[in-house]
Amino acid sequence: MKLQFNLKYFLLTILLFFTEVLIATKLKDIFFIRAYLGDVIVVILLYTFIKSFVVVDNKKLIIEIFIFSCLIEFAQYFNIAEKLGFQRGSLMYIVIGNSFSWVDIACYAIGCLLLYLGLKLNSFSRK
Asked: How far is CA 25 from CA 9, 12, 34, 86, in A?
């Protein structure tokens, strides 16, 4: 692992972050987008954020992000946000989440699969 700033990934991170904020604030009434698309995008956001600052193996990073996302989801089952003292509606309460869902884990898997396929397609196009 090597520290190195990557402007392309950093700009993608900003774009994805604002997309997530838009989903959470303006598109929250559109069920499919709020319930599913946000969870697919969040793993891609984590990927681009890490790649903004670190040179790391892509496959390994995708697997680690999926595991991390699952751990956060399982922590929600035990109401971790409340146990950490975060108030309902606070930024950290929203970021950590408040309810466990197998569907969320499926969305994280889809996001990671899309990342993997996107990397594969990109590597094929360079050959």
From this structure: 24, 20, 9, 20
Confidence band, pLDDT 50/70/90 cuts, at residue 24: confident
- Residue 62 CA neighbour count, 13 Å, CB half: 17
Domain range enclosing 94: 2-126
For residue 18, how many other CB atoms are within 10 A of its CB? 10
**Calpha distance 51→125 (Å, rounded):** 20
C-alpha span between 89 and 94 (Å, rounded)? 6
Number of domain units in the chain: 1
CA–CA separation, 97 and 105 (whole Å): 13
Query: Does the pLDDT at position 127 exceed 60?
Result: no
